[in-house]
Please model this.
Amino acid sequence: MSTGFFGDIGRIPFEGADSDATLAFRHYDPDELVLGKRLEDHLRFAAAYWHSLAWSGGDPFGGPTLERPWFGDSMADAKLKADVAFELFEALGVPYFCFHDADVRPEGGSFAENTRNLEEMVDYFGQKMASSSVKLLWGTANLFSHRRFMAGAATNPDPDVFAFSAATIKTCMDATHKLGGENYVLWGGREGYESLLNTDLAREDAQAGRMLNLVVEHKHKIGFKGAILIEPKPQEPTKHQYDYDVASVYGFLRRHGLEKEVQVNIEQGHAILAGHSFEHEIALAGALDIFGSIDMNRNDYQSGWDTDQFPNNVPEVALAYYYILKAGGLTSGGTNFDARLRRQSLDPADLLAAHVGGMDICARGLKAAARMIEDGALEAAVASRYSGWDDGRGQKLLSGDLSLDDIVALVEEEDINPAPRSGQQEIFENLVNRYV
Ligand code: XLS
Ligand code: NI
Ligand code: NI
Model:
């Protein structure tokens, strides 16, 4: 029986670009074939439980603005929230959802009570998933909201917090595994510092490395086939977060021998906070062979903070999907809307419209990216720019056979005196504009 939260809504239809309905898809037809694959299978959309169901609209100056009948801390509230969550997922036709333990279960007074509450909700989700086609993209542990985590989880100066966190991660990995989750995410919520003066960087790095190794060991122990993903972010909540960006995470993984075991979940807003573009982070992860999944939520460019807004800029999204397709596409990963409503958007219909708009934007971006791939002109132009490296001298320079002395001899012998060639940036930019 429906909760009635969204009225008597059914599945939101695809109506095509000319539709003038508020709640209809104009560009996202899950069955449309793009590069020989269904759009739904390319994009692998997921709704985020924390923003869509648990967030109440507060900001640093004001309290909750959103009123939801399930706000409360009983198991009955948690189950009503789950009922509405699945109505949302099914109305949107998103194949996946993502959650933190703290989004779905009431906070207990102890580890044991948290675990019991989580397990009861996992069983409840299991039933709901069995009677729908909704799957779990990823699960994660919230190791940042409760005050015990104020100085970090793995990187806390107190080993008891490390132990509590490790035990909590285990329960969340088990929950994810039980629900057939396709990834497990670690965002280092408060793994960073506020003041270097009270911080031992070397210890904190070693602690974080041990924690991630524990996670990977447990993954293999329970036979979890999904990917383990780290989500980089440079600041907020701590002023300096260790998982600053893809490059820092890669260095961390190498240092702890985990670069073949762990990939990244890249969030657009986090990339921007780190002073990068979203596509830079995706392309770098592709180049380092650690691309996993994305959180598709942008920041407000004027406010310069992690405002978690739904995407609405096709050219940006198109470039993101272009580099995703070049990195092999979304395999175990997906497009998670780690995005929330604006706090004045009070109505249930706003929640639906936000996702519908975001999904349409992603569909347009993916289709533009597919045209770029099919056409191949951009790729060919890049290849031609580097073609000197493909044979002869380029290969010899890379082979390791030449010393600096040898190279001096080569430059002198062949009188090498390179003539600068145009980088053609504007021509490349114009090329991209043909597709978006
Ligand atoms: C916060 C992060 C968080 C992760 C999951 O900024 O984006 O929502 O995606 O813990
Ligand atoms: Ni974020
Ligand atoms: Ni995120």
Observations:
- The chain has two domains: 33-375, 380-433.
- The first helix runs from residue 39 to 43.
